Amino acid sequence: MDMDMDNPDSKRKAPRRKGDDRVILHFDLDCFYAQCIENANPHLKSVPLGIKQKSILATCNYVARKHGVKKLMGIQEAKRLCPDLVLADGEDLSPFRDVSKQIYSLLKSYSWNGRVERLGLDEVFLDVTDVVAYNLGLVNHHCLEESWFCLSREDPERGFAFDAREVKGCVWPPDFVSDRENEGTDSLRLRLLLGSHLAFYLRQQMEGLGYTSACGISTNKLLAKLAGDRNKPRNQTTLLSSHSPVPFLDPLPLRKIPGIGGKTITAMKSLLKTDDDDDGLTVHNARTNPAVSPFALERLLAGSGGGGEKGIGRKVWLLLHGIDGSEVKPARDVPRQIGIEDTYRGLTQLSQVRAGLVQITTSLLRRMHVDLLDDFDAVTPPISPAPTSVGKGRWLAQPKTLRLTTRPYHSPSEWDKFEYNHGRVSKSVALPRFVFDLNIEPESIAERLVEGTLMPLFHSLNPDKSKLCIGLLNVCVTNMDRAKESSRGGDIMAAFQRQREVEEIRGVAFADEPPDGEEKAEDTSDDTEVEWVEEEDEQDGVRCRLCGCVIPVFAVEAHGRWHELDEGWVEPQGG
Ligand code: DCP
Ligand code: MG
Ligand code: MG
C-alpha cells in the first residue's frame, strides 16, 4: 500500500495512477424531466419549458436555458427572465422513473460484463473495457476508415461501421495531436477512440427512444462524468489526456468534483485559510496549496474532528489528481430494497400522517411494479405516463419485510445542530401478501396497508400523541425473495444469465455513494462491525474480513456501509 497518508513528509509525492486500463462511459440525459414531459407532449419541444416542484424548477429545457432560466431556479425569478415560460408539474416522479428504467435496460442490453450502474434517474455508467478490447483486436490498421465495430462475440454481423481514424465527438484537450506513428496498437488513444464510437452509437439508440444525452469517455468514473459535462447538450467528450488528467481538473471549482461535498469544502477552506466562494475555490487552489496533503486532509476530515470515515483524506487527495479506482457496479435485475420518503414541516395530526403514508405507499407500490415485475418494459412504451391502472407481469422478486421510518421535524435554524439521521426511528414487520395481488388497484392496497400495518407501526414508534411533530416518513420494502426460475418459465440460458448476475453481485461489492437524489436507508437495528485488513500483495485494495472480497481503496468506506445497510435504493418523493 502507498503509505502517503501516514507520513506527512511524503505529502508532495505524486499519487500513483490507477485503473487507466479501463474504458468507462458516463451518460447523462439532457434536461431529463423536461424531455420526458416533451415526449409525452411534443408541442412543448419548441417552447421554453420548466418542470415545477413546489416553488422551484426541478429542471427546464434548453429553449428556456437560452433565456437565462436555470435548473433549481425559483419560479418567480424564472418567469421574470422568461415570461413565456410554460410550466409543467413534476411532483409525480413515476413517469421519470419509468423512462429511467427503459434507458437503463437499453444500455444494459449492450453490456458484455454486466457492469452498468445507475446514478440518480438520468445517469448511467458503463464499463466497456471488454467490448473495446475485443474490437481493438479487430482493427485493420491499413484501412481504418472502413472499420467495423462488433457488438456481439457470437454474431460478427451485429455491429456498426465506423471511421477509426478519428475520435467521435469532442475531445479534450481540444488541441490534442496524436502521434499515431508511435503509439502502437494497444494505445490508450485507440481504446478511447473505440469507446467514443460505441458511445455515439449508444446515444443514437437512446435517441431512437426519443432521448438525447451527453456522454463522457475516459478511464475512470470520476473523469468520465466530468468529461461528459464539458459539452452539453446532445454531445460527447473523450478525455484524451494520455499523460495526466491534472490540467483538465485544475480549473474546475472544487464543488464540481463528485465525492467532494459541502462539508469537505468547508473544512478545506479552513485549511487553506481562504474566504473564496465555492466557485472561486478550484481544484488547482486545493491541490497545490502546501497545507494540503493526504495526511492533513485525513486529520481534518476523518475521525472525531471532521466526522468523516477513515481513509477519507487519501480519497480526497486522489480525487484532486483525477484518480478514482472505484468500479462500475454490476447491474442487478432487482434492487435489494425499494423505499420512498417525503419530508414535512411538522405533521401534528394523525390524519395528516395517515394521508402522507397513503400517498407514499401508493408510490411505493407503483415503484414495485416497475422494478419487480418482469414484463413491465413490454407493457409500458418509453414515453407514456406511468400506468395508473393495475400492473401486469410476474414478480421477479417479492420483498418479505416492510419498514417504517419516522423523524421529528427540525426547523431550518436547527439543521446545523443535527446530523441528517438525527431522531430517525424505524420498525420492521412482515410484509402482508395482499400487496402482490395484481388485480387490486395500488390505491386500495395502500389504504389497507396503511390502516392495518403502517398506522400501528407508527403508533409504536411515536407513542406520545400530544407531542406529535413529524418531519419525515419513509416506507421501505426489503429482504427480497427471488422467484424460482423454473416457475417463471424463463428459458434455461436466461436462468443461467440471471444466476451469473446474482453470483457476481454476491461475490463483489462496489458500493460507494448512493445514487444522486437517493437516500441511504438507515437500519437502526443492526450495527455490523467491519474490519479492514491491508495486505501487502493487494496493491489496489484491502480485503474485507466479513466477506473476503478485495475492495478498491475508494470503495472501502462504502463497502462497510454496504454490509451495515444491506444497501438498497431509497428515493425521496418529488420535491
Ligand atoms: N433533479 C431534481 N432535483 C435536483 C437535481 C436533479 O429534481 N436537485 C431532477 C431533475 C432533472 C433530473 O433530476 O431533470 C436530472 O438531473 P440533472 O442534473 O442531470 O439535470 P437535467 O437532466 O435536467 O439537465 P442537464 O441537461 O443539465 O443534465
Ligand atoms: Mg441530465
Ligand atoms: Mg444527471
From TrEMBL:
Organism superkingdom: Eukaryota
UniProt-listed Pfam families: IMS (PF00817)
Claim: Mitochondrion is one of the keywords in the record: yes
Source organism (scientific name): Podospora bellae-mahoneyi
Identification of the protein by name: UmuC domain-containing protein
UniProt cross-references to InterPro entries, sorted A to Z: DNA/RNA_pol_sf, DNA_pol_Y-fam_lit_finger_sf, Rev_trsase/Diguanyl_cyclase, UmuC
Phylogenetic placement of the source organism: Eukaryota, Fungi, Dikarya, Ascomycota, Pezizomycotina
Subcellular location per the Swiss-Prot or TrEMBL entry: Mitochondrion
Domain UmuC as annotated: residue spans: 24-261
PANTHER family in alphabetical order: DNA POLYMERASE IOTA
Keywords attached to this entry: Mitochondrion
Region forming the signal peptide: none
